[in-house]
Write a structure and sequence with these properties.
Blueprint lengths: L11 H14 L3 H14 L4 H13 L3 H14 L4 H13 L3 H13 L5 H14 L3 H14 L8 H10 L3 H14 L4 H13 L3 H14 L4 H13 L3 H15 L4 H19 L22
Helix pairs in contact: 1-2, 1-3, 2-3, 3-4, 3-5, 4-5, 5-6, 6-7, 7-8, 8-9, 9-10, 10-11, 11-12, 11-13, 12-13, 13-14, 13-15, 14-15
Amino acid sequence: FTEFSAFEGEQPSYLKTLIAKAMNQAGEYGVSIPLLKNVIKEKPDYRDAWILLGYAYLNNLQIKDAIETFEQARKLDPSKPETLFFLGLAYFADNKIDNAINYIESSLEKGFEPRIQAYQKLAELYFIKKDYEKSVKAYETVLGINSGNIDYFVRPMWIYIEKLNNPSAALSLAQTALIKHPSDAMAYNLMGWAYMNMGNYQLAKQNFDAAIKLNPQLAAVYLNMGQMYEKMEYYLTAKEYYKQAFELDKNNSSIGATAAERYNRIVQKEQRQKISEPRGVIYQVNTFKAPYSK
C-alpha cells in the first residue's frame, strides 16, 4: 500500500499516518499499530488509516484483527482494490480459502495493480483447493503479463505433467519458454522434461544435452535425466545422474533432496531384487556404492 489520501493542510492525524506508514515500511509494527489506532480514534472515517492498520496487523500475524480492520476499511469504501486484495491475503492467512479467492478476484475486477501479484496468489489458492485447471490458467495469466522470468514456467508445467496428465500442454509452455529464453539452459531443460513425459526420450535427451552444454552446473537437468533413465529402467545410469544432481544442489533447494530420495529408492529396490542394466545401455557409468541420506 503506497498511497493514501490527505486531509486539507497538515493535520495531526495525517502526519501521524505518514509516520505510521514509514514504520510499516520499516517493519516496526509495534510502533505503527498504536499510532494508527490513535489516528482512527480521532478520524473514524479515515479509510487509509484503517488499511495501514490492517496491513500492520497482517504482517504482525494478528490475523483476526487484520480481517476485522480490513472489513471496516471495505465498509468505508467497497471499491478500493487494495483493501480487497489485502482482505483476501488476511483470509488466506486464516485458512479461509474461498473467501480469499473471492476478495482477490474482486480486487482484480476493481483494477488492482500489480495484477501479476494477484494472479500469482490466485494460482496458489486454486492449487491448494486442488482446482488444478484454474490454478494453471492463473499461472498462464502470470506468464502473459511477464514471461521474462523463466522460473514462472516451472509450476504450470509441473501441474500439466503431474496433476492434469497433459504433457502436450507442458510442451507448449516449454516451447514458449525457449522462444523467450533461447540462450537459457533452463529452457532446454523444460523442453526435455516435457518430451520425457511424452515418452520421446530421444528428443528429451537432445534437449537435456543442450541444457548441460549451456550450463553444466544446472542441477535440475541432472535430476530430470535421472528420472528419464529410471523410466527407461537404466538404473545404474539413473543413479549416476541423481548423484550429480545431489552434489550440485545438496545445500540449495528441493532438487538435491529429491535426487537423494530417488537414488535411495533405487538402492532399496536393488536390495529387494537384483536389478541389472538392460542391454543397449547408452552410457557406461560407475556404480555409486553408498546411498544418500534422506
